[in-house]
Amino acid sequence: MLKLGPGRQVAYVVKDIELTMQERIKLGVGPWFYAEKVPVENFQYMGKPSDVQFAVALINSGDLQIELIQQLNDAPSLYRDFIMSGAEGKQHISHWLDTEGYNKKFIKKNKKTERKGV
Asked: Which of 20, 26, 40, 43 has minimal CB crowding within 10 Å?
């Protein structure tokens, strides 16, 4: 059985990452580590290759990391779909897994992932 560790990352998909960072800095949240264009390799969405491009900003507070994501093009991705649905904001929470070999077990059992790549 999968056992999730504590939540370690909260990610927000935003329309304007630089504006969002500036708004947070005014509230005392910063400085941010900002990558204007993240190198992406072998990204797949819904089982198909996608040439997605996005910017990312990260900040850590104790054991929690906050991530901002802005997609820079119209390539198919979960980020594009999220924004196109009219949403902007919290998109995912990540947990550190506390079971060894989980990825191998998951792939063996499910044989399909929605998103893959860096």
From this structure: 26
3 state SS of 104: helix
Write the single-letter amino acid at 71. Q
Among left, alpha and beta (phi > 0; psi -120 to 50; other), residue 86 is left
First to last CA, the chain: 26
Q: For residues 24 and 43, what is the distance between their CA atoms, to the nearest angstrom?
A: 29
Overall pTM surpassing 0.90 (yes/no): no
Identify which of 11, 44, 18 has the alpha carbon closest to the alpha carbon of residue 112.
44
Q: How far apart are CA 112 and CA 106, in angstroms?
A: 9
Which tens digit of pLDDT belongs to each residue from 25-80? 999 998 999 999 999 999 999 999 999 999 999 999 888 999 999 999 999 999 99
Alpha carbon of 99 to those of 28, 47, 63, 107: distances in Å? Answer: 36, 26, 19, 14
Domain ranges across the chain: 4-116
Top-tier CATH class for 4-116: alpha beta
